[in-house]
Structures
1.
Amino acid sequence: MEDLFSQFTFLSDQALQSKTFDPSTIRDLMKLFELDSYKAWATMELDCDNELQKAEDYLDSCLENAMEEFQRFEDELDREVRDELRGLDRVAEYVWEMGKSMEKEVTAASNKYVEEAVKSAGGSVESGSKGNSSSSSNKFHPS
């Protein structure tokens, strides 16, 4: 680009000093300016595309790292939840066994109570029937 500017300066000086100067030489120089500008633009665009690709690659890398970290977190959380569930299962099994044991104890106590109540009722019936048979002649009617 610097060479083109110096040529432009040289041709401008010639155009001012010479009456036989051909203006098409400046047009040719302007075309070279245009071509050089397009090349610079293409180079800059390629550089921008490269930088954009680097930025996209970096973003992809960050996203992959974040997803890997999230996966590790999720796996760790799953392990913790499974461990907690196993603990709760053990507690539930213990409570279930305790409940079955208590049920057996309550059933046994209830059966014993029923047996004792039946014995007591049987004893009351026997003592009542003994007392009634001796006093059956002494019955008093409230009417």
2.
Amino acid sequence: MNLKKNIIRILAVLIVLIIVRNIIPFSKPGIKVTYNGSKVETAQWDYIWVPKNSGGNSGICDVIPKLADNIKATTVKGGDKVKFRFNTILKQPRKTVTLHMVNNEEIPVNKRESWKGNNYFSAPKEKGEYVYIINGDWDRTHDANYLVKICVE
């Protein structure tokens, strides 16, 4: 009898976990970015977090070059991986997360990487300072963008 109760409890927990993992977070999640286990500084750029069929919220931060000036660059080796994950136990972004390489004077440079299930991007091999936009896109009304600055040695 106890075995049946335990099996039912385990199944109930699994069902709840499956349901929770498929729910879009209730508010815009933060992001954790790391390089070799150390935290990388980020800045929130813009976001849209609007519940379907109701009002919601969205935010637009400063222009990229000005905002990037306030972020400390993390020194990395060319080609190394920079890892990231959105801070939520709920659903991670379902759509492609695009990393736009941006230079500090102009907006997008032609280089772009797409993230499809991987939780990292590779630093360029060329030395220099690079600013990335990490865009998490859950659906049409749930989108969050963060800036990261790296300096390739």
3.
Amino acid sequence: MATAKEKQDNARAICLLVGFVVFIPLMIFSFIRYQTFKTTYTENEYSQRIFDIGNLAPAFITAGSFLLFAYIVCAYSFGSPIGYVLGPIALIGTGLICVKIAQSIAATYFGVFVDPFNNRVLLPKDMANYSITDYFNLKFITDLGTMEQVPLDQIRKITRQGGKKLFIHGKFGSRGMTFSNKQKRDECISAIEDAARVSASLEFEDAA
């Protein structure tokens, strides 16, 4: 007959296996979401996409942290009366959170899409502009992993902050983008500046 220690070791092994099994759908869902972005926002001869793999680290760390939390809760409450309540809650909650994180991974990997032909700059949703009402409405959760569109011809100024941060300003307000290194930040600045010149050229050609 299995001892209490053996039961706990078995529970930990099962929870660890569940964690790996949950991580696989996370990656699959991220890929499907990414493909949706690629299909929705199709590239053309004038467009440029700036993606930064280094920005994926925080999303994976967050996902891993929630999986670790669920593992600890399930492993240490397994076999006890409270475990039958906490275990499912932890797993379901972690699953739902991981779905949003998967969407965030897809949006982060898609990156910034500069498209002068359609007069737009697409970027992952910037939540720094949220009001208290937005936070009460849980928009920081519902908007996680979504893209935001800014009219290219309304961008009036580009500023840098903190070495790796980039802000665009215009009639729409300000939108921020964070990169893992200065090279990617400067690549995005160059893409926006070049696109603004191309957009003006396209407008001139249309007028002709």
4.
Amino acid sequence: MAEKRFRREVHTAGCSCPVVLLVPSSQEFTMADVAFVVTTLAVFALVAVIAKGVAKL
């Protein structure tokens, strides 16, 4: 399953020994962006509800 989500890249890093890096796919970055936006909107909605409740006190 990790093979589908990550792209393998081999770098020499300035020496003769290869270094294998697992680079996340662009789809994984897109899902992280969507999750960030949804979470941010939820936090602002929660703050608005709390502020509305405090204003009624």
